[in-house]
Amino acid sequence: MDSPWKVLIVSADAECRRRMAESLTLWKMEPVLAADYTQGKDVLEKEPIALAFCDSRLPDDGFREMLSLTSTQKRPVPLVALVCDEKGYQDATVLGAFDAIPLPCEHSDVRWIVIRVMHDQQNRRRDSATRVVPGTVRSASGRLD
Question: How far is residue 95's CA from residue 47's CA, in Å, rounded to a whole number?
Fold first, then answer.
């Protein structure tokens, strides 16, 4: 990781935001905090965000709006739901969240998600670097001709 990842945390719960930020700074990441959907949207429009955590209990369907917004970015941002129960987990993953972790969050939960997202992005970069364009042929040396 060359420069610190910016990670968006959207939650109306100040203690949740504080705890998540603490977890992320332990691993040299830059947390960006938002108390609601509007603040989160503003951040996504202005900053290069690598990962977003969003409380599934945001008022006015804010979680669904945030999920939709992160998936339509120029470079989609993985969104992880912060949930209170198993139903919240199921709902979030069915809606398309990258994953979900329970509230209150433990440092190990946050770290596991960060590792998974980094691994997923590394695999995507590798896959896109080795993608063969239809109609090209690999020579015996492995080069594309």
Answer: 24
Query: Cβ contacts of residue 124 below 8 Å, gap of 6+?
Result: none
CA distance 39 to 113: 23
Contact by Cβ (8 Å): 66, 10: yes
The span from the CA of 12 to the CA of 35, in Å, is 5
Do 91 and 56 touch, CB atoms closer than 8 A? yes
List pLDDT tens digits, range 47-67: 999 999 999 999 888 999 999
Let me know if domain 6-129 sits in CATH 3.40.50.2300: yes
What CA–CA distance (Å, rounded) separates 92 from 111? 19
The predicted model scores a pTM of 0.83
